[in-house]
Design brief:
By secondary structure, the chain is of the alpha/beta class. Helix content is 25%, strand content 30%.
Length: 392
C-alpha cells in the first residue's frame, strides 16, 4: 500500500509517525511547500523575538525521514488531486499515485482587504520565511503596529517589543483574546502587558494604511490614526482549501471530515488546520497532532473514532501565563466562580455541577488538571479549592 501525506506540519508528521509505528513497510511520501524539515510553528515567535534560531525550532532532522523510509518532497506545491485515478499533480507537472491520501495542508494567514495592506512594510506571520522577512525589515526601525489582539497578535507584539520596537496592538473588539478571555480576564492581562511596555488601541477598526515618508500611517474608522514603521496583520488564518475544492471533495470552512477523519472520498483523509469536524476548524497545534495520529491509524486500516477536541489554549506573553479551557460562554444554566488574588485571576464555569470551562491569568499550573476534569465530566461539588489552587 502507498500512502501520501500533503503537508509537513503538526498533523502531517503525527500521521507519518503513527503510520510507521504500526506499518513499517507501506510506501510513504510527504509533500511540503516549504524548504527544510518539520519545525515547530508555535516557536516561530521565539525566532522572531531573537530567542531561537531556525535550527533550534526544527523538530525533525533529515535522518528522521531516512530512518523511517519516508520520501520528503521539499518546496513542492500540490496543484491538483484526482480522486478517481488516485493521483496528485505537483505545480511543476510531476505526478504520484496513492492508495490512501492524507490532506494536511494547513492554513494561511488571512490578510484583510484593507487599502494599503500590500505596501512594503506590511506583513503577516505564518512561516520561518515570514519571520526572516520581518527581522530583516525591522533592523533599523523603531515602531511597530500589530493589528489583532488574539493569541498570535500578542505573542508577536511581545517579540517585536523584545527586539526593541515600540509596539502597539490594535484590536477591533473591546478586549484582548476575545476567543479565550472574558472582559475581566482580558482587562487584567492588558494591565499587566502595559506595565511591561506594550501599548493598546481598542476597539479600533483599521480602514486604510498609507505610506508617509519612510514610514506608514494606519487610519482607523472614526478618524483616528497612528504612525509606525512596520505593520503586522494578525487577523487569523484560513484553511488551504483550493486543491480539495478543485478535486470535488466536500468543503465548508475546512475540508469536512467524519469521525474517522475521512473526507467525502473514502480513500482521502484530512487533519489539522485544513480539517473541519462538525462545523469546527480548531486551528491549534495539539489538536492538529491529535487529528493527524487518528488520520494515520484510519488510513492504514485501524479504525479509530474521533469525537472532537476540547478547545484549550495556553501561552506565555512576556512572562505572563494565560490559559483558557473549554467553554467560557455565559449560556443558560452556566454558573461562574471567580477568585482574584496574589496577582492571579481565575474563573471557573460550571453547568449542572460539572466544570465546562476555565480562565487563568498569572498561574496556569492547573491547566492539565482542568482539561482532564472537563473531558471526564467530573462533578465539582465545591469550586473554592480548585480556584484556590489556580491563584496560589
Amino acid at each position: 500500500m502507498k500512502i501520501v501525506i500533503v503537508g509537513n506540519g503538526a498533523a502531517g508528521i503525527a500521521a507519518a509517525e503513527t503510520i510507521r509505528e504500526h506499518d513499517k513497510d507501506c510506501g510513504l511520501s510527504i509533500y511540503s511547500d516549504e524548504p527544510g524539515t518539520h519545525y515547530s510553528r508555535p516557536r516561530i515567535i521565539e525566532y522572531l523575538g531573537g530567542k531561537a534560531t531556525p535550527e533550534k525550532i526544527a523538530i525533525k532532522s533529515p535522518g528522521f525521514y531516512q530512518k523511517n523510509n519516508i520520501v520528503l518532497h521539499e518546496q513542492t506545491r500540490i496543484a491538483a488531486i484526482d480522486p478517481n485515478t488516485k493521483t496528485l499533480v505537483t505545480a511543476d507537472g510531476q505526478t504520484e499515485s496513492f492508495d490512501k491520501l492524507i490532506i494536511a495542508m494547513g492554513a494561511s494567514s488571512f490578510l484583510p482587504p484593507v487599502e494599503g495592506s500590500k505596501l512594503p512594510g506590511v506583513f503577516t506571520l505564518r512561516t520561518i520565511a515570514d519571520a526572516s522577512a520581518i527581522i530583516d525589515y525591522s533592523k533599523d526601525k523603531k515602531r511597530a503596529v500589530v493589528i489583532g489582539g488574539g493569541l498570535l497578535g500578542l505573542e508577536t507584539a511581545a517579540s517585536l517589543n523584545h527586539r526593541g520596537l515600540d509596539t502597539t496592538v490594535v484590536e477591533v473588539f473591546e478586549r484582548l483574546l476575545p476567543r479565550q478571555l472574558d472582559m475581566d480576564g482580558a482587562k487584567i492581562l492588558q494591565e499587566r502587558l502595559e506595565a511591561l511596555g506594550l501599548h493598546f488601541l481598542l476597539p479600533r477598526q483599521t480602514e486604510v494604511i498609507e505610506k508617509k515618508g519612510d514610514g506608514l500611517v494606519v487610519h482607523f474608522k472614526g478618524g483616528t490614526s497612528i504612525e509606525t514603521d512596520l505593520v503586522l496583520f494578525s487577523a487569523g488564518v484560513r484553511s488551504n482549501l483550493a486543491v480539495a475544492q478543485k478535486a470535488g471533495i466536500r468543503c465548508e470552512k475546512g475540508v469536512c471530515i467524519d469521525n474517522h477523519m475521512c473526507t467525502s472520498n473514502q480513500d482521502i483523509y484530512a487533519a489539522g488546520d485544513v480539517a473541519q469536524y462538525e462545523g469546527t476548524v480548531y486551528g491549534l497545534w495539539p489538536i492538529a497532532r491529535e487529528q493527524g495520529k487518528l488520520a494515520g491509524l484510519n488510513a492504514i486500516g485501524i479504525p479509530t473514532e474521533y469525537k472532537g477536541s476540547v478547545l484549550s489554549t495556553k501561552l506565555k506573553v512576556t512572562g505572563i501565563d494565560v490559559a483558557s479551557v473549554g467553554s467560557i460562554e455565559l449560556a443558560q444554566g452556566v454558573e461562574v466562580h471567580t477568585l482574584n488574588r496574589n496577582g492571579n485571576f481565575a474563573r471557573v464555569f460550571t453547568k449542572d455541577g460539572k466544570i465546562v470551562g476555565a480562565i487563568m491569568v498569572g498561574n496556569s499550573s492547573s491547566y492539565n488538571k482542568i482539561q482532564s476534569m472537563i473531558s471526564e465530566g467530573i462533578v465539582l461539588a465545591d469550586p473554592e479549592p480548585l480556584l484556590g489552587s489556580m491563584t496560589d
